Structure formats: structure tokens, C-alpha cells
């Protein structure tokens, strides 16, 4: 079973082509025009052991918002498509990731219901051109399009770079666990019979 998807989305604000392989080895080819965001997508890919290719252009002369949000939408759509009917997946995943003084918890349920519960206390500032508030916007777009319930919570930390990197890595590790195929699961892991 190949769990891959390619999605293209073009609007007046962004033009994005994205390919995702859930059963990859952590290879990323990411170009969004936002260096810190590229760094976060690389971390998500590496620690999720996905393969991800993203070619995105957007109205960065305005700011990074549209590009970050739209990449989240497209990644979520690719995630949902690559999962298919969700047969045999583990479904739940969690991770606790430290990065120096920062410590972030992630827990995910591939539930079919897009919900983000985000309590990551980052100072509002720019990291390069990346507004730290955009991390939340990315995850809202991603979980809504993917149909995931995702909890992200910082337990400690005060450096924005460390907090956001730990957040993306924790999300990646939780997603890696949740999408893993479990040979003991027959069908869809839900008493309802569908997700």
C-alpha cells in the first residue's frame, strides 16, 4: 500500500504544489520563501519520517501569513488523502520533546474531526521574517484540512525559536506514531467503524 499524495492549490495569494509520503525516511525539499518556516517544515518531515516536497510562492511582500496558512491547508489535504480509509493505523500518538529550556507536549487523534488545542506560550516577535503567531495559524489550517485532533502545549520555555522548534518536532513525533500501521488492527480503529 502506497500512502502518498500530491496536491496543487493556486489562489490570488499563493501557488503551492506539495507531495507527501507518509512512509518515507525524513527527506524534505521545501521552498516557501520563508526561511524559518522552511526550517520548521524540515523538522516536521525529519522527525515524522515523512518525505515532503513543497514548492510555494506567495505574497511575501505583504507578509508570511498567506503562505504559511495555505501550506498548512495543502499539507492537511495531502495528509488526509495519503491516509485513505485509515485502515490499520495506530490512530493515536503523543510525544514530549525538549529543546534546551523548552519542553513541549503533543498528542494527536486521527479522528476525522479537525480540532486544534494550542497552548504554546511564545513571545510575539519575528524570527527572521516569521511572526511567531503564524505557528498556530499553520496548525489550525493543517488539522482542519487533515481531520485531526491535535493538542500542543508548552510546559516550559521562553526562547521563541526553541519553543516553536520543539512544537513542530513534538507534532511530528506524535503524527509518526499515529499514522504507523499496526498489524494487530484489522479495519479502522474505531468502534463506529469509520473515522
Outline the structure in words.
- The structure is a single chain.
- The protein has 195 residues and is α+β, with helices and mostly antiparallel strands.
- The protein has one domain (4-179): Ribosomal Protein S5, domain 2.
- It is built from four helices and ten strands.
- The chain has helices spanning 35-48, 65-83, 134-146, 160-179, and strands spanning 4-10, 14-21, 28-31, 51-58, 92-99, 102-109, 115-119, 126-127, 130-131, 149-156.
- The strands form three sheets. Strands 1-2-4-3 form a four-stranded mixed β-sheet, covered by helices on one side. Strands 5-6-10-7 form a four-stranded mixed β-sheet. Strands 8-9 form a two-stranded antiparallel sheet.
- It is globular and about 50 Å long.
- The mean pLDDT is 95.
Terminal CA distance: 19 Å
Number of strands: 10
Q: What is the element string, with H for helices and E for strands?
A: EEEHEHEEEEEHEH
CATH class categorisation: Alpha Beta
Radius of gyration: 16 Å
How is the biggest beta sheet arranged?
Answer: 4 strands, mixed
Overall average residue pLDDT: 95
- The level of helicity is 25-40%
Number of helices: 4
| Class computed from helices, strands and strand pairing | alpha+beta
Number of domains: 1
Q: From the 3D coordinates, which CATH architecture would you assign? A: 2-Layer Sandwich
Share of β-strand residues: 25-35%
CATH superfamily: Imidazole glycerol phosphate dehydratase, domain 1
Note poorly predicted spans.
none
Principal-axis shape: globular
CATH topology: Ribosomal Protein S5, domain 2
Describe the oligomeric state of these chains in a short phrase: single chain
Amino acid at each position: 500500500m502506497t500512502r502518498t499524495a500530491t496536491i496543487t492549490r493556486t489562489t490570488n495569494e499563493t501557488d503551492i504544489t506539495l507531495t507527501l509520503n507518509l512512509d518515507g525516511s525524513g527527506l524534505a525539499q521545501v521552498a516557501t520563501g520563508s526561511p524559518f518556516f522552511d526550517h520548521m517544515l524540515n523538522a516536521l518531515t525529519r522527525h515524522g519520517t515523512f518525505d515532503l516536497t513543497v514548492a510555494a510562492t506567495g505574497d511575501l511582500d505583504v507578509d508570511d501569513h498567506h503562505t504559511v496558512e495555505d501550506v498548512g491547508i495543502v499539507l492537511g489535504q495531502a495528509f488526509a488523502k495519503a491516509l485513505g480509509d485509515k485502515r490499520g493505523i495506530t490512530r493515536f500518538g503523543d510525544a514530549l520533546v525538549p529543546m534546551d529550556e523548552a519542553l513541549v507536549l503533543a498528542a494527536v487523534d486521527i479522528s476525522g474531526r479537525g480540532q486544534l488545542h494550542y497552548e504554546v506560550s511564545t513571545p510575539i516577535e519575528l524570527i527572521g521574517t516569521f511572526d511567531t503567531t503564524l505557528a498556530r495559524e499553520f496548525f489550525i489550517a493543517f488539522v482542519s484540512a487533515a481531520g485531526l485532533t491535535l493538542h500542543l502545549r508548552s510546559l516550559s520555555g521562553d526562547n521563541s525559536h526553541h519553543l516553536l522548534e520543539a512544537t513542530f518536532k513534538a507534532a511530528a513525533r506524535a503524527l509518526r506514531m499515529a499514522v504507523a500501521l499496526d498489524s494487530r488492527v484489522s479495519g479502522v480503529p474505531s468502534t463506529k467503524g469509520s473515522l
